[in-house]
């Protein structure tokens, strides 16, 4: 089986939400990924919380964010 690339993974999706660390390194990586997604024909949005590590969010915070973003 051949390896799947970014285009293969996201062909079924119309958009991609990117939520990386809020520090400079995380945001640099997020912008690179956003650019690659757009090259693949996807609409990409970077969700940026300054100085926030998404992995440190509590489940309650994740649920609130999900509700705010998607209703």
Overview of the structural elements:
With 71 residues, the protein is mainly α. It is 46% helix and 11% strand. It has helices at residues 6-10, 24-39, 59-70; strands spanning 15-18, 43-46. Strands 1-2 form a two-stranded parallel ribbon. The longest helix has 16 residues, at 24-39.
Determine the N-to-C terminus distance: 38 Å
- Taking all residues together, what is the mean pLDDT? 84
SS field, number of helical segments: 3
Order of helices and strands: HEHEH
Low-confidence stretches: none
Radius of gyration equals: 14 Å
Q: How much helical structure, as a percent, in the residues? A: 40-55%
Side by side, the strands of the main sheet go 1-2
Task: Describe the structure using short key phrases.
71 residues; mainly alpha; 2 strands
Summarize the structure.
It contains 3 helices and 2 strands.
Itemize the secondary structure elements and their pairings:
Elements: H1 6-10, E1 15-18, H2 24-39, E2 43-46, H3 59-70
Parallel strand pairs: 1-2
């Amino acid at each position: 089986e051949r390896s799947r690339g970014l285009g293969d993974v996201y062909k079924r999706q119309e958009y991609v939400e990117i939520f990386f660390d809020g520090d400079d390194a995380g945001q640099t990586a997020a912008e690179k990924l956003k650019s690659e997604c757009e090259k693949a024909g996807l609409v990409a949005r970077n969700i940026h919380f300054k100085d926030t590590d998404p992995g440190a969010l509590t489940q309650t915070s994740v649920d609130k964010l999900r509700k705010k973003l998607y209703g």
